[in-house]
Amino acid sequence: MENYELIQQTREGLSALVLSRYLSTELFTFNWWFLLAILIGTYALWWKIIEKKRLLELLLFGSFIAVSVGFVEGIGTTSGIWGYKYKLVPIVPSLFPFDYTLVPIIYMTIYQYTTSWRTYFTTTSVASALYAFGFNPLLVSMDILHIEHWNHIYNFILLLTISNLARFVLLSDNFPLKESRVETCSAPFCNRRHGPSIRPKGVSKKSNYESIKPSAYSGPDTYYLKDWRNWIPKVKPSAYIAGKADTTKEKV
């Protein structure tokens, strides 16, 4: 109990010290504005290029990245392996704008625009190398990041592992999102780039899902894959009242 009280007092003293330094040394300096520009610029660019119809899927992928990177950040900061001399907000560990913004959005963008494991792995390898061996040394040279007993190669390995593990989880056979995207296939996730890797069982790759076009609306179990935009069912409200769904196909 005495040890806990000592730890709690130390935390309170650390928080007061961090806030005091933040207000007197860090706030509104060039490095602080640099961090703010990264935060705003990254979100603005991401919102412009993101595929809105896959927003839920991409956010789930990004959340996996953010939680994993934030966990590593917490270990490194509390262990004294590294620390940030300039922070956007006066909290420890400092999760903005890197762990919860820049890193997840980089890999979310790669996830959105790659269509196979080969291209994804190659692109994430390049991005991880640029971040670990380019951006991190830049932060050190700007006196934003301070590193103790750590090598940038470890950052590269961690980023590459986390980003590929996130894609593996989302595309695994037992993951609910994949099932909803293929077997029940809600419209926002019916993107043709997913066709070759997650086609339904019994459908050959060469068919390209041409034979799965629905002839009438049959509920959430209908496959809407390649041409779902051109096969939107039209159901009359009166048909539901009568207990019969009179449907027609409507070209967009």
Structural class: mainly alpha
Radius of gyration: 24 Å
The averaged pLDDT comes out at: 79
Distance between the termini: 69 Å
- Helical segment tally? 8
Shape: globular
How do the strands of the widest beta sheet line up side by side?
1-2
- The strand count comes to 4
User: Regions with pLDDT < 50 over 5+ consecutive residues?
Assistant: 179-199, 208-236, 246-252
Order of helices and strands: HHHEHHEHHEHE
Helix content: 55-70%
Strand percentage lies at: 5-15%
Reported for the largest beta sheet, the result is:
2 strands, antiparallel
Number of domains: 2
Structure, described:
The protein is mostly helical and about 250 residues long. The protein folds into 2 domains: about 15-170, no CATH class; about 180-250, no CATH class. About 55% of the residues lie in helices and about 5% in strands. Strands 1-2 form a two-stranded antiparallel ribbon. α4 packs antiparallel against α5. The longest helix has 25 residues, at about 1-25. It is globular. It starts with a helix and ends with a strand. Keywords: Membrane, Transmembrane, Transmembrane helix.
List its traits.
252 residues; mainly alpha; two-stranded antiparallel sheet; two-stranded antiparallel ribbon; 8 helices; 4 strands; 56% helix; 6% strand; globular; disordered C terminus
Summarize the structure.
This protein is mainly alpha-helical and 252 residues long.
Strand-helix topology:
Layout: H1 2-26, H2 30-49, H3 55-78, E1 82-84, H4 98-113, H5 117-141, E2 145-147, H6 152-170, H7 176-182, E3 232-235, H8 237-242, E4 247-250
Antiparallel strand pairs: 1-2, 3-4
Helix pairs in contact: 2-4, 3-4, 3-6, 4-5, 5-6
Keywords: Membrane, Transmembrane, Transmembrane helix
Transmembrane segments: 27-46, 58-82, 88-108, 120-140, 152-171
